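FYI - complex with S-adenosylmethionine, inputs then prediction.
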Amino acid sequence: MSSLTRFAIDYQHQHVGNSMIVHADCFEWMGRLPENLLHGIVTDPPYGVKEYEFDQLEKRANGNGGIWRIPPSFDGHMRSPLPRFTALNEKERKQLYRFFVEWARVAKHALRPGGHVFIACNSFLCQFVYAALVEGGLEFRGQMIRVVRTLRGGDRPKNAEGEFPDVCSLPRGCYEPWGILRKPMPPKMKVSDCLREYETGGLRRLPEGLPFSDLIESARTSQQEREIANHPSLKPQALLRELVYSVLPLGEGIVADPFMGSGSTIAAAESQGILAIGAEKNKEYYELAKTAIPRLSELIVDSQQINISFR
Ligand SMILES: C[S@@+](CC[C@H](N)C(=O)[O-])C[C@H]1O[C@@H](n2cnc3c(N)ncnc32)[C@H](O)[C@@H]1O
């Protein structure tokens, strides 16, 4: 039995290498974890709140709109559908805000004091997502900018493209912001004390001793990775390996991805010999993660920013 088994509580779970994945709603699961368990969280949550609901996934599969749109083809290749966050109305924005306040509360419960969260976001929504996370009790520590061509924005005004050929309604997205948050350290505690007591509080320097930097050049997820894990929001191993590495300041402890999708964060942790737990509520993605994690973790990838190999 692995040291992680008891954290599956009574949810369906499976060990994959040293890590464990659970089939659960993360709000419920994290709320039931022992307090102060996790050393760090690296995650990529759903942003439309609704884009991973059954009816929206069905519309995506049928190529039938909903919150999903097909970006223009690029280099002669058809792109996969992306969620349209601009389609959220006021009520849905409020719902999204509440979602992240509640999520921050359960994350704060499960994290150790000083434990960091890296959370993928998008430039359109990040301002109020960060506000919600702070209202839920996390401390804002800045953001990491992943420089990547997202194919979001840059379009001419809808249904008036011919009339306004020189206008774009939103800038073309060339970066993906990731919020950096932390569970507050106990009052008056210094980072050095927090490192001693909880093994948290700071971020780990990169293998060459350079500080973790908040600007990361990152290619889009490779075709090879997409073939292994067919998830609409698959993040690249090169990026995730750097994040799971840096989220543990002493290289010790447990990293969680509560919205693990196909398990790419767990695979990144596996490749680094880091203990990780992933939670996913969609059964199909949970099953996909079982096969994708070992294969993604085996890939040799280079971090483009610092030109070091994380494997
Ligand atoms: C943006 S995707 C993450 C994809 C992941 N980065 C990957 O590379 O595969 C978010 C995932 O969270 C899952 N999800 C949504 N709500 C959840 C919840 N309450 N608990 C656990 N998983 C949830 C969705 O099914 C989806 O797979």
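The radius of gyration is 19 Å. Residues 90-110 form the longest helix (21 residues).
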